[in-house]
Design brief:
Elements lengths: L3 E2 L30 E9 L10 E5 L8 E3 L5 E5 L5 E8 L2 E10 L4 E4 L2 E3 L27 H21 L4 E11 L6 E11 L10 H7 L2 E3 L5 E3 L4 H5 L1 H5 L1 E7 L7 E8 L7 E9 L5 E9 L11 E8 L5 E17 L8 E20 L2 E4 L5 E9 L4 E2 L4 E4 L5 E3 L5 E7 L2 E8 L1 H5 L5 E7 L3 E8 L2 H7 L6 E6 L13 E5 L5 E6 L5 E7 L5 E2 L1
Amino acid sequence: MRRLRRARGSGPGLVVILLTGLLLGLVILPGAVAAQLVTGTVLEAETGTPVAGAFVRIEGVRPGARTSFLTGEDGRYQLQAGEVENVSLIVERIGYERLVVGPIAVEYPGVTRREIRVSQTAIELTGITVESDARRCSLDEDEGGGTQVVWSQVRTALNASSWTGRRQGLSFQIMQRQRRLDPGDGTVLDETRRRVPALAGNSVRSLPVEDLVANGYVRTTEDGNFEYFAPDAEVVLSEEFLSQHCFGLRRGEGPTEGKIGLVFEPIPGRELPDVSGVAWVDEATSRLDFLEFGYTGLPYDVGTEFAGGRVYYEELPDGRWIVRDWAIQAPAIRVVQSDFRSPGSGRGMVEEIYETGAEVVSLTGDGFEWSQDLPTVELRGSVYDSIRGEPLAGATVRIAGRGWRATTDGNGDFALSNLAPGRYRAVLEHPRLDSLGLPPLAQALELAGQRTVVELAIPSRWTLLARGCEGEGRSVVGRVRSPEGSAPALPVRVVAEGPGGEELATGTSTEEGDFRLCGLPAGPLLLR
């Protein structure tokens, strides 16, 4: 007797492909004039550049379609507060610490405008301690810890992806695919592809989380087949999911080297089919790369290693996030009867693996266009410490207003890949600048072609000295030394005299013997 049990190849039970336009947008409707709005711009505190990809949300009000906003290239946000007197704004960015702004007094009805300046306090994931057996069944932000830090980056990316998926005015082209795979070596036995339009950023949608918690992620149908449900962004972000799972960290190895994983698994005692897996985050950039998952508590015990999937995320050049690609697999099980006189004596064999998935090919809307074929630019460069005369290691090089950043190696070199062409400002940050009393250094650059090369440097001692004379005419900088070549024991007064012996400017040397004379006229002079 043969009985084939498998996931349905294309039915809504496996995964729902969203092809309708029933989305919640953030366009102000005519009736919203009397609403209570909070609007403004998110800017970098150091450079004043508008920040793209900042997820701004209102705290203390009921979550809704208009209580959060993902900034674009202009850094603008717009939120609807409801009938309250005060609100606080939470600003979250990939790779940076979150910022709480407020409380802000608001009027009803009316529009409250608030400019938000964010400092570049980066989150470092490379130094986080990973304990493979440590699990936390709460992600309360007050508890802190490495798990909470990694979760904050995963959460920001998922929020941005969910927001993009609800945004009106975006048109997607999605390539759906169905495959049958050989369970032995994963060879594709056959495959069908179909290109379809969609009006959502996420081509995968799950059941409501309340349904999944109550009935499980895998269901047995009346005809003996199984239905599998994948967790989408809104499921993972929900309080129900967080309360039903424990979390920990894992350091990547092999294909995931350079990544840190947020591990999740059902709470002890969970008997219904559930999901466990890892959300992999790039250690250098703090970006969510992909989420892989499998199923626990399955109603069968054969081929469980073939049941699961992956969801890949991608940040677009303007700060939006999308589900770029996803796939979910399920085993087809053939039951072989060992004794036809005993109906329960059969054993199961995995005959085939069924896979369903989709990838975003392109999207357009709001004056924006993106596709897999658009050119990208690699930015390479080096950073030099002109004062010490050596390469500067451990410096952060970032692109103002974007989340793109890299750290220089021991040779002062850095590289950033998959950047969008355009004119930007590269910003250099390092503790050396702080010790010299200098702000982050910014340099304009244009990303074009396949590769752009830039050289950045901490200015020389003489350049820094001369900067103090800007706008005061000609200047002279130098260093006073004793006959033995050492710095003078006491400050030395330095005088610049004109040809007639008149005193033109005076200055006093520093502890290192450096001096600066400003506001000098053109012509010969004498220093004494």
